[in-house]
Design a protein that fits this description.
two-stranded antiparallel ribbon, alpha/beta, 8-stranded mixed sheet, single chain
Length: 413
């Protein structure tokens, strides 16, 4: 979730990448200009290769290759050229390849997340005509789980769920509109109500007449709650249970770390910044790509979304979404979250709910999960540590074990 403070951090990281690139070009330009200043002095000391007459005018010819070689040797011996040249080359290399150095500060896992696609793919048309990409794993006759991923990511974030749960369940994983392989709505409406209707279309199309458990991470959990409000008759008939992973029940600005500061920044800073991000989407995407290449995106995500036990591949997956996902789509969806609330819906949810939360989550504080447990009649809470907003990656085994145990209890009919 790109909340006001994380949005500011993201903007700072993107600008830092731009500054690194600009500084490298500035240093290289300075070194070249200093070299050009030294070149005339070298020319005066150079002995001509030959002289010839051209229209009565004596013309001196020099060995240009030797001339420039001598000039560079002289320049490199001068600190006013060699120092900015070395610094400029170093910054330029770090701007595009610094991620290799950053990678050394992370451990490698034995099973790093990667694209894992199903041969069974469905295209579901959403209520606004958007083409929703849906993948299915597992046996057709197995109990069915429907996974909705977090904002600015895609269904690839469920890599470990695909690996660990497909042998026991039928998994339906879809990409939210405008993200992953799903197209966005033509009217640019990324409200949670619209996405809850998309979820309903997916369930009705891919799992008709079968009981399901809805599994949602971050905005996916918020979409689950919106689905409950819009389609209450589906609870107990189609939906037998709900799993909420590191998510909120209201405007996530109010349930994040430093909520008071985030609330104060929402109107004057967060919303204008997101509107600018939407308008300048191609530029922001390039800056996000630079942040990914130099590793600053990895460092920021490790600091804000993980608890310290993450692997390089897990951080890299999340950092890669930064430039793979459209900044315009991400901004519009985040603005929609600012005006969303489901507090009044919690008491009316009649099916069992499992609330999973990383104890170190600062994007959505554990207190939000405690609130849901206290206000949803059949809710149970499980806190996992060390784990943060991407506990489904960092502590994938424990998250998936809890999901499997809960779903097996719900899907008995």
């Amino acid at each position: 979730m790109l909340l006001p403070i994380p949005a500011l951090l993201n903007a700072v990281v993107a600008l830092l990448s731009l500054l690194l690139f600009g500084a490298s070009l500035g240093l290289l330009t300075h070194a070249y200009r200093r070299y050009r200043q030294l070149l005339p002095h070298v020319v005066r000391q150079q002995v001509p290769v030959r002289e010839r007459a051209a229209g009565g005018v004596a013309v001196q010819t020099f060995d240009n290759a030797a001339l420039h070689k001598r000039a560079w040797r002289r320049a490199l011996a001068d600190n006013s050229v060699s120092v900015p040249l070395a610094a400029g080359v170093g910054l330029l290399l770090f701007t595009f390849f610094g991620g290799g150095l950053v990678r050394l500060s992370f451990r490698s896992g034995q099973d790093e997340p990667r694209p894992l696609h199903s041969p069974v793919v469905r295209n579901v048309i959403g209520p606004a005509g958007e083409n929703l990409h849906v993948e299915i794993f597992g046996r057709d006759d197995a109990p069915t789980l429907v996974f909705t991923h977090g904002w600015s990511t895609s269904s690839t974030e469920w890599y470990y769920a695909k690996r660990q749960l497909a042998g026991q369940f039928r998994l339906i994983l879809w990409d939210l509109p405008g993200l992953g392989a799903s197209s966005g709505p033509s009217d640019g409406n990324y409200s949670l109500e619209r996405m809850a209707r998309d979820l309903h279309a997916v369930v009705a199309s891919v799992a008709p007449d079968k009981p399901v458990v809805l599994v949602g991470h971050s905005i996916g959990g918020m979409i689950n709650l919106t689905y409950c409000r819009l389609f209450p008759t589906e609870l107990g008939s189609t939906v037998d249970g709900i799993v909420q992973l590191d998510t909120s029940y209201t405007n996530p600005v109010t349930t994040t770390k430093n909520a008071s500061q985030s609330e104060a920044l929402q109107k004057p800073v967060g919303e204008p910044l997101l509107h600018a991000m939407s308008a300048l989407s191609p530029v922001v995407r390039v800056l996000n790509w630079l942040s990914y290449r130099n590793g600053t995106a990895h460092l920021m995500n490790a600091k804000t979304a993980f608890a310290g036990s993450e692997t390089w591949g897990q951080v890299d997956l999340i950092a890669r979404y930064g430039y793979e996902s459209s900044p315009d789509v991400v901004a519009r969806g985040t603005l929609a979250m600012f005006h969303w609330d489901a507090k009044g819906e919690l008491a009316r949810i009649s099916v069992p709910v499992l609330v999973l939360v990383g104890q170190q989550d600062t994007t959505t504080l554990p207190s939000a999960s405690v609130y849901m447990r206290e206000h949803i009649p059949k809710a149970q809470l499980q806190a996992i540590t060390p784990s943060a907003h991407y506990g489904l990656l960092e502590q994938n085994g424990r998250y998936n074990e809890a999901i499997a145990r809960f779903a097996s209890t719900c899907l008995k009919r």
